[in-house]
């Protein structure tokens, strides 16, 4: 067998076999190396309801480090580098088994968007070059692959622009001074007036991009702003983070806190323009006292610069991948090589010392279907002493994440002060009310958690419709 064929076979076999886990443990969260290489860099990620993560990268730079199955190649006459390419630019990661397999994406999906439809399928739109007006669908199953349903779609649909007050300081928060943003948890869902509040963190001062191209890497922003967009006269409330950060990711955790992770402490987004990796995640507690809402976490050893991603998993961990600030894959010469490793961050609520307080959902069963504005009884178990007034139920929509933004990401607290009743030995029921409409919770699959003293259960999948 030719040498290049043996190499391709090795890559394919590596993709279908599990990788031993490597743990870094300490108080303040724990990092876990899941895969030393998945063969592609995780520029885009989406968790689906079969506990598998669809990952994809650009196609226009040439070969990746992950082979397609034998005899399978991409043939795209419009591709910029390789018209025929027998390597994969997408992969599916199996969370439960810690394995991955190559997927076939045909046209370029660089810097694209995505959303999970109500039936659980991922619809992905846009990209670059011949992929910029394409639509692709991925259905969750054991051996499914991308289906390109292509054809033009209208790029401009009109709409409404709401102008809120300029964030204090006047510094930009969008590319290339990339900050991140998240819709804070929605509460009091049955109330007559619902509050919606947005948190924006990080970015880079004006001119940082131009300065970085000249070799001057300006310190990133260390500020966050909160604004209640439902107020009649919304105003920004500013706070300071423990670290400056540009190109960070913000993830809603099951208990309603926010994890801020990835990015750099200086420079800007763009090719090779970031410096000082932001290795320490930060947990932000929205309901905490102003001035004490941030808590620094243990650092990773892997810089996650431009083109990094992070998403919430059903077990409460956060999957982290990506980082490729280069036009192509470069592993040898740059300050921050192309990154193919996958790791997971376990927030402190997953520490083993919390096991006795951690809820375990008994019912409903995973994949249960729920309706709108309905009473829902959630049965759960807690091994230790239960603090009844510190029990809540949350629903989280898994995000499509790329370029420091988690699309479609929201968390809803179900109910308000519902009573917990005893249902047997160390077993309890809590009755909550599901969201009242699709305006608050678009139909589809969500992760449902029971949270006790800020410690979440493992989630279950529910479909609301």
Automatic annotation (TrEMBL):
SUPFAM superfamilies cross-referenced by the UniProt entry: E set domains (SSF81296), Galactose oxidase, central domain (SSF50965)
Keywords: Signal
Signal peptide positions on this chain: 1-18
Domain Galactose oxidase-like Early set: 358-464
Record keyword Signal present: yes
Keyword field contains Ligase: no
Name by which UniProt lists this protein: Galactose oxidase-like Early set domain-containing protein
């Amino acid at each position: 067998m030719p040498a290049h064929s043996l190499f391709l076979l090795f890559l394919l076999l590596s993709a279908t076999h599990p990788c031993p886990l490597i743990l870094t443990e300490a108080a303040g969260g724990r990092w876990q190396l899941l895969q030393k290489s998945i063969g592609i860099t995780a520029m885009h990620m989406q968790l689906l309801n079969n506990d598998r993560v669809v990952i994809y990268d650009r196609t226009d730079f040439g070969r990746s480090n992950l082979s397609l199955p034998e005899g399978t190649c991409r043939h795209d006459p419009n591709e910029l580098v390789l018209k025929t390419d027998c390597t994969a630019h997408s992969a599916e990661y199996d969370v439960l088994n810690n394995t991955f397999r190559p997927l076939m994406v045909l046209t370029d999906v660089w810097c694209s968007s995505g959303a999970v439809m109500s039936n659980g399928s991922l619809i992905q739109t846009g990209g670059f070059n011949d992929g910029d007006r394409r639509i692709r669908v991925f259905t969750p199953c054991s051996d499914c692959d991308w289906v390109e349903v292509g054809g033009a779609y209208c790029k401009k649909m009109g709409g409404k622009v709401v102008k809120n007050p300029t964030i204090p300081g006047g510094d930009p928060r969008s590319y290339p001074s990339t900050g991140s943003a998240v819709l804070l948890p929605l509460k009091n869902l049955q109330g007559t007036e619902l509050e919606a509040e947005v948190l924006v963190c990080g970015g880079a001062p004006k001119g940082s991009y131009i300065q970085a191209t000249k070799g001057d890497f300006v310190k990133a922003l260390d500020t966050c702003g909160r604004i209640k967009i439902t107020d009649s006269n919304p105003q920004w409330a500013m706070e300071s983070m423990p670290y400056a950060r540009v190109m960070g990711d913000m993830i809603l955790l099951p208990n309603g806190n926010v994890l801020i992770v990835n990015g750099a402490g200086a420079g800007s987004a763009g090719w090779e323009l970031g410096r000082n990796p932001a290795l320490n995640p930060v947990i932000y507690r929205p309901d905490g006292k102003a001035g004490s809402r941030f808590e620094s976490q243990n650092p990773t050893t892997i810089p996650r610069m431009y083109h990094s991603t992070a998403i919430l998993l059903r077990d409460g961990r956060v999957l982290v991948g990506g980082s490729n600030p280069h036009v192509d894959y470069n592993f040898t010469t740059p300050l921050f090589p192309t990154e193919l490793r996958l790791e997971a961050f376990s927030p402190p609520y997953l520490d083993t010392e919390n096991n006795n307080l951690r809820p375990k959902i008994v019912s409903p069963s995973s994949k249960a279907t729920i309706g709108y504005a309905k009473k829902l009884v959630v049965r759960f178990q807690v091994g230790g002493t239960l603090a009844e007034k510190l029990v809540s139920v949350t629903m989280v929509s898994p995000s499509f994440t790329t370029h420091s933004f988690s699309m479609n990401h929201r968390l809803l607290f179900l109910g308000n002060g519902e009573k917990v009743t005893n249902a047997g030995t160390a077993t309890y029921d809590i009755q909550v009310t599901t969201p009242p409409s699709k305006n608050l919770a678009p139909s589809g699959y969500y992760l449902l958690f029971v949270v006790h003293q800020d410690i979440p259960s493992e989630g279950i999948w529910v479909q609301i419709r």
